[in-house]
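2024-03-11 09:14:02 INFO receiving multi-entity request
2024-03-11 09:14:02 INFO entity count = two
2024-03-11 09:14:03 INFO echoing inputs for audit
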Amino acid sequence: MKNIDESDIHSFVNAVSGFFLQVTEEKVEIRSAYLVEDGIKPTTFELTSYITLSGNYTGRIYFSAPRALIAHLLLMMQEPDRSEERLLDAVGEIANTISGNARKHFGEAMEVTVPVTQATKPDWLEKTVSPRSYAILVKWKQYRASVIVDIQTIE
Amino acid sequence: MDKRNEQSVFARYRKIILAVILFMVVDSLVIGINFYNTYKADESALSINLSGRQGTLSQRITTVLLLMQRSLDANDESSLVGNLQDSDLTVNIFNLPPSVVRNLKELDQTVTLFDTTLKGFSDGGIVTGGDGKPTLLTQVETAVSRQLVADTSEIWTKYFELLKPLLGEERNFSVAELKEAVSYAQNNNLEIQRLMNDLTTDLETVANKRASTLRIVLVIGIIVAFINFCYTVIITLRDLMSGDKKLAESRNENAEILATVHEGLFLLNKDKKLGTQFSESLPRMLHMDIVPGMDFMPILKNMVSSEVYESAVDYVELLLGERVKESLVASLNPLTNIPVSMLDKFGNTQSRYLSFFFNRALVDDKISHVLVTVQDVTDRVQLQKQVEQAKSMSKAEVETLLRLAGNDFTSLQQFIDNTSQALGQINEKLSESHDDTRALLHTLNYVLRLVHGIKGEAAALGIEALEGYAHACEQEMVAMRESGQELTSDSIVRVAVLLEGFYERYSSLANIASRLGSVLGTGALNRPDAAAAPIVHPMVEHVTHLAQRIATDHGKEVEISCHFDKLSGLPDHIVRELQSISIQLVRNALVHGIETPTERLTRNKPRTGSLSLWCEYLGSGLYEFTVRDDGRGIVPEHLRANFVKNGRLTPEKAAAMSDKEIAGLIFKPGISTADKANIDAGHGVGLDVVLEKVDTMQGGRLSVKSRPDSFTEFRIQFSAA
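2024-03-11 09:21:47 INFO inference complete, emitting structure
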């Protein structure tokens, strides 16, 4: 995505990693990073949360993960409730952590909305995400999850 | 309101104004006629009244005369006159009884009244009215009346002569005169009364006729006035309806304009509030609900930075003030090309650029509103950026693009297609999971090969912007690959960012090329002759151009000979692969093979090096493509020393390897014999690319022949069957 450097991308991925490290003492690792293009779709999983940025940078940061990953996470958090609602809450918490890091990284002038969470609809992100957004695939334990950085600067 | 406005108001309401004037004229006429007839009716009433009175007066005169006669008869006439025997003797009025004296006084009044009234009827004049006050009696008008008055006057003239002695203060009359007068009265009183009655009847007839005429005139007047009133009402209603219709049409047209226009349009009043009407695109452009009467400044405050907002407040104040000319402050408008964020139909945030333009709306030379036009100038701003980007390209690059677009658009288009394909391949590779360092290294080498290929093609075409960026990427990735530290998975993010940079430059190039193509009418590959155009000639040109450029850069001289006749019948994709291979081998030959002129002269070689490329058909569908230079050749000992020097091989391992094995290393990724890396060599990618491409060709085989200080020859066999 235009005018975004790897430190911006790392700030979002590190937020996710930091969350897992804090909760499970196990960080996530990047496995691939590519651009969403024609024919190369963003990798998405069953649950997705996102925050919307405005200010000097505009766009969205998505975090998408499979139910199994989030359920495992809740298990490690000793959370007995693993209902759909609670799973979505957990995905939202991760987006919230990304939001906090975004504020730190880009400064307080950056406006960030509260996280929106939802069960991922088929083809939703393919239609929604801008071309040349960054898709970062991360691994935690045996699971995969993705961080999609769809932001650009306003000059 | 100025004169022109007055004229336009009169023109607009002309019919109504004329109708009202006509209405007033007709009404005035009716009123005038009515007034005239009333006056005439009064006159008639007076005449009738007085003519009736004449009969009464005549009767009264007769009565008085008879009363006097009887009174005289009843008294001793001798006591009244001096000589009773003589009936002609004058009556002594002092001897008359009081009743007779009273009768005489009444006779005076009655006769005078009758006489003046009759003269009034005859000639017109002031007479004593019924109320005893003087009043104007007009001459009778009709012939009948005039005849009646004339007849009456004729009788009255003699009658009056007979009565004269009985009148006045003197009253010197004789009994005989009285008797004569009584006798005349008795004979003519009835006639006079009849005449006066006839006169009354005639006057009444005239009056009735006039009243009848008056009624007709009044009725006509009222009808005309009514018609005129109806006409006025109809005209007014029609004008009003026409005005309403025009207003409605105008409103509909306004609504259509506001619904259709792409710009955001609205009026701003002096309180900086929005007017009641605005274009439908405005809420969409401002990404908010718009309500008439909304404050404009808070809307703006949410859209722009505080600095721009403050400037905008001052600017709008200036526009709404009367003191400053609009044209003078236009250049101060801070609200042009304002970046704003808005959501698209999928709910994604999009960056757009808006411009606000302000124009004063004047009424009677006073500012009533400010018309605000909002334009989405995103495309224009982006185009400007592209133009600026294009401007930032070197003159040589622009010339190269122009040359390619004008003469060799197929090659340029091919390069663009190849680059697009290569970038897609890189991206696809990056999307694969990288679970260990080996996978990362594999991806890095893969990306490097593709980037090197792009660099080579860009260099051959003289597109320095992409060649330079590819070189920078190459350097960075080589540094990653060769860093002492273990590659981390985070490196893949950096590669993705580099790829994005590539896409950015590629898009810009593709866009400029497309524009140039359309401007120059080359029409890219859509040209009917494009598909049939041989791509061999451009290949010769590109290879020659690249070789000369590298030779110049490295202070070398070279003579190039290309014989690609046999390529003419080959499929394009093979020719393109061979071109790509040529680029790498030519680069290799000029950097590593051919010596500088000084070195060549020292070795008793011609000053100018020789580089030959040719293709032969071997039969059975087999071809051989050869690149040969007369440079220093591949010297295993030099390679061995270089590999040890740059740490690729340990001295022991180098010593243990055969010459063939050492020479084979030049095809390994990351192995270079160059002392230091530059844009043309040193990253150990070129021959790696050649080998990979040969591997992908059907029946592809690569062989190398070389003799130290003499030549190096790369032969590539392939099948085109």
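2024-03-11 09:21:48 INFO post-check: Chain A has one domain: 6-153.
2024-03-11 09:21:48 INFO post-check: Chain A touches chain B at residues 1-2, 4-6, 9-10, 13, 29-35, 37, 39-40, 43, 52-54, 58-60, 127-130, 132, 134-137, 139, 144, 150, 152, 154-155 (CB under 8 Å).
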